[in-house]
Amino acid sequence: MTLNPVFGLGMVAKRLPKLIRQLETPPTRVVAVLDRGAKTAMHNSLLAGLQMLNVESKILTWSPSEKRKSLAELEKLTQRMIGAGLDRGGLLIGVGGGITTDMTGFAAATYMRGVRWAALPTTLLGMADAAIGGKTAVNLPQGKNLLGAFHMPQFVLADVASLSTLAERDWSCGMGEVVKAGMIGSPSLLRRLEKASRPQLRSCGADMLAIVRATAKVKCTIVEEDPLEHGRRKLLNLGHTFGHAMETAAGPRRLAHGEAVALGLQCALDMAVDQGLAKATYRQRMLELFEHCGLPVKYPGKLPTTAELTRLIGRDKKKAKSSVDVILPLQAGECVIVPGQAPRDLALQIQRSFG
Ligand SMILES: NC(=O)c1ccc[n+]([C@@H]2O[C@H](COP(=O)([O-])OP(=O)(O)OC[C@H]3O[C@@H](n4cnc5c(N)ncnc54)[C@H](O)[C@@H]3O)[C@@H](O)[C@H]2O)c1
Ligand SMILES: [Zn+2]
């Protein structure tokens, strides 16, 4: 399997029809699910691209939220697909943030027992992470992403210029995953981030294009080696075991996912330094980089108790676990998977880092 996401600046109208024409079998119809938040940045180029095809197409707009990343909303969306005449030979395209691509991908995995799909991510998190790797899902009331499938998109096409309309907080959240990718597998990505000024990064031009490409490359390389997450793909969870617990405890208003990941990266760095696996200078360098990227370095508010953090860390998709894996950073671009950690020890690490 080779993943080859296409990144560029303002090229969707041109590249989209080309990529669709390159499919092994031409689609009978194309239906795009467009994130309302991405409308300003993407609607016109999407429409222009679709109009260049010799096949009927339709754009369905929807407003994403974690609450609406649900089975009920999936049912409504698939009914709109039926209305748009999408059949088994059709192509579904998810255009938007991670919620939209996750939801569209899952719709594609199940619609008429599976149709082809493509992703056009329009958030930094989507381009760097969510749209790459074929994991698709919706949420259940009991938890996030509990119902899903591995369903690879036919292609991933991202216009980095579309990030210019992204809200500041969504931008920094994406940066959490970008820094994570650098720490996992790309020292040059970390250097590039350090060298670029905030306005350069925020301008969503050539610097950001290079950064998004390098970030996606880290994920692609790992997913190609381990598509079903049996081994190395776990590296992508760097910062997430700690981060998820803090995210749940604080709630999404106080701590959005990417911000929680940044705090989780800090815990992992602290733990690695305490165990003599990483140098204190590397930890300090990364903390400065978090601040440069608009990411938090302190837990907002009062930390939950160790018992509560232990419970949150041990809960893996509703199943209490007595031991979990933790990923520890060794040096720029290099991490190690350490299995068999007691959730309480990780909770104590969060207390040491932010208590
Ligand atoms: N499948 C995977 O491997 C994977 C990996 C990581 C995260 N995810 C999922 O991704 C989701 C989070 O994705 P996200 O951070 O992109 O959030 P999101 O999809 O909620 O998008 C964030 C906000 O940005 C808006 N938006 C989208 N594009 C825009 C643009 N160009 N300009 C302005 N606003 C825009 C959206 O409408 C939304 O309000 C979560 O549900 C998570 O579970 C999936
Ligand atoms: Zn994440």
SSE layout and pairings?
Elements: E1 6-8, H1 12-21, E2 30-35, H2 39-51, E3 57-62, H3 71-83, E4 91-96, H4 98-110, E5 116-121, H5 124-130, E6 135-140, E7 143-150, E8 157-159, H6 168-185, H7 187-195, H8 198-202, H9 206-225, H10 240-250, H11 257-274, H12 280-292, H13 306-314, E9 315-316, E10 319-320, E11 324-331, E12 334-341, H14 343-354
Parallel strand pairs: 1-8, 2-3, 2-4, 4-5
Antiparallel strand pairs: 6-7, 9-10, 11-12
Helix pairs in contact: 1-2, 4-5, 5-6, 5-9, 6-7, 6-9, 6-11, 10-11, 10-13, 11-12, 11-14, 13-14
Zinc ion is lined by residues 177, 240, 257, 261.
Give your account of this protein's structure:
The protein is 48% helix and 18% strand. The chain has 14 helices and twelve strands. The chain has helices at 12-21, 39-51, 71-83, 98-110, 124-130, 168-185, 187-195, 198-202, 206-225, 240-250, 257-274, 280-292, 306-314, 343-354; strands at 6-8, 30-35, 57-62, 91-96, 116-121, 135-140, 143-150, 157-159, 315-316, 319-320, 324-331, 334-341. The strands form five sheets. Strands 3-2-4-5 form a four-stranded parallel sheet, with helices on both faces. It has a two-stranded parallel sheet with strand order 1-8. Strand 9 and strand 10 (319-320) form a beta hairpin. Helix 10 crosses helix 13 (306-314). The chain is globular and about 60 Å long. Nicotinamide-adenine-dinucleotide (NAD) binds next to helix 4, helix 5, strand 7 and helix 6.
